[in-house]
Amino acid sequence: MCPTVVVTGPVFDAEFLSGGAPPLLMEDLGTLASSLKIGAFHPDSHDAGTYTESTTTTPWTDGTTTLRIWQHSNGNPQDAIVGVSAASEPLDLKYYSNKRSTVQILHSATNAPAFEFRNPPKFQGGNRRDAHYETEEVLDSYFYHPNTGPFISTRLIQRFGVSNPSPGYVGRVAAAFRTGRFNINDGITGNDNNDNGITFGTGKYGDLESTIAAILLDPDARTPVLDADPTHGSVREPLLKVLHFLRSMEYSHSSDQFLILTSLHSRIGEMAYDQKSVFSFFLPEYGAPGPVSSAGLVSPEAFAFDTPPVVHLMKGLFSLIKFGMTNCDGGFGRGRSRCYAWAEGDYRHTMGRLTYGPLRRNNPEQMVGELDVLLTGGRLSSESRAVILDALDDDRFKDDDDDGDVDDGKLRLAQQLFAASPEFHSAHNLIRLNDNDESREHSGPAREPSAPYKVIVHIFMVGGADTFNLLVPHSGCSAAAGGTDLHEEYRLMRGNVALSKGSLHTIDASSSKQPCDTFGIHPRLPLLRELYDGDEAAFFANAGGMKKLSAKHDYRSNHGGFGLFGHGFQARVQTVNGGRGDLFGTGVLGRLADALSDDGYLTATLSTGGSGTASKASIVRGNPYSDTKTSSMGGTFGPTPFDPTPSVRSMRTIIDSMNDATDPLRSGMFGESWSAAMTKSLDDNDYFFELLNTVHPTTKFPTGTKLGSDLRFVSQMVKVRRERGVERDIFSINIGNFDSHSDTFSTHDSFFGQMNDALGAFRKEMTA
User: Fold this and answer.
1) Which PANTHER family match (predicted)?
2) 74-97 tens-digit pLDDT
């Protein structure tokens, strides 16, 4: 491919425009005019004073062609306008820009012009032109809007370790974004002279060099004392924790292998270049249940706190430490068929392994100190340090050869305990309670169920399903709707995404108060017609996010301050019912479960949403002080044994003691959120794994779809309801992403087809 450049310059030079001789013979003005190729608007169409006709040079005429020249007020020759007409029709002017645009093809070796041709203009109609101008204006209004700087600054700060930045921090970063410059002394109290520090940025609006410099060098990002603020910091992203461990512990791959991390997004909720939505892996407005949401704060990375990603992250790190990069015991690597035959520390068949060794191997305390610097940034609490050192003082790791060296097994155990510590998973200081009575509870069945069992299974269609094509007005509409044919209205309004009558599964709605006697169901959902005809299904029409007709000036007041146009806001409206959640950010199904618990029913809620879905578990989140048992579990990577071959028999007890309850007034909220989530996740995983091994569905569920796996899991949970001690179950399942733009037919055909198959199997299993 040859390099090209576009060269622009005037056709007639400044001397000619000012009254000098034309570059061609006077008697050949037609040839002269043919050099003008780019049209121009009439000079009078511009603002007054922009163009002035040159009376000293024009009109030129040779008896056949006449030229008139209007010079631009900026004096630039190529901005001049030349009028050309036949000498016999001097008023019939055609206007041209005095501009020549040439494309030069350069020699690949010398970059000298080797060939050139005229750069042809591209003509477009007025409508397209205006659309282009209006789009540019809209983009400019977004880009230069006064809220753009603070908005982008907040989002970027969140990605660099501070989930809830202070207004001052946001303001300083936004100023760097707006001015395009940041001085290293900016924001330092008492320093008004910014000429002595390093300055970043080009001085242009929106400069990201200055913005990132402001984020990383601001006092709010660098002051160690802020680690003691319970609200400062963040939960760390799953992928960054994996990469951090690989780098700090000096991962090295085998000579014939390279690093492959398999199905990481499905396992831990995040993988580079595997984002399932344009809205990132985490919702920026998401707050973890517990102290974070109770304080009205957010913790976007806690979006991955469902049981499966938490458990699989821990399994992967433990396996990496003990067996190297394999799939043994849930490792991140590719398959190895004989994991059962390998002992911990046997790396002969691995794709790679951690090669870190302590600088001083003769002292466990020094080893823990090194790991503290490398893995927890020197923030390991005294309680965690004591737990780790106590675990290392195990007879299994005694120094058999009396050389004073730390046994390799001790190093592996220490690495595992660091990976399980809340300090590794959060970015602030932690202070545990001294009262041993405040250890975390490990719940079980409260009593034997006695009331009849009932269950709700809620399926949330993430991304906004096109339900106008799920239930369609079909026929028999005119009389009931006052003469309006609703199907024709549907067809006209929907245009090329409307479904034809012949493709729909029809149902009889004549006994209802709906405006049509017959409705149609999407062609990929025949099961719904079967259920409807058998009085097993009902449709709630005319239900959506809009409470009332609204315009720009009143839609916020009409809808409680929640936006109607963002996926995240709309998901929150649907899951927490327009923001009606109380102090704890409860959801619709969570409040329903709390009401059932208050009435004395043994109630449980469970979300199989998984990481990276819009509704998350917030819809089943209830009051944390209620008796409702809340869990999150997925079907695709369901419960599997955690650490089946522990390095020490008391591994789970040690992990639990490292993640005991923290001081609610002085300790970091994000570490507390992680500890609570991990402890509960490990408990639920072990409990459900043992329980579900006792029951197996008799129906074959669809394989390869999340909904099929989730409904299979739900069917198992229903069958062991008595063992779980439950009288009322509420399950929330997600399917999607339905966020289709130009591919609405294929998207909905696929997802509705998955729903039809999975619901059919679930119905069969529940009625077996």
Assistant:
1) BLL7424 PROTEIN (PTHR43737), DUF1501 DOMAIN-CONTAINING PROTEIN (PTHR43737:SF1)
2) 989 889 999 888 877 877 889 999
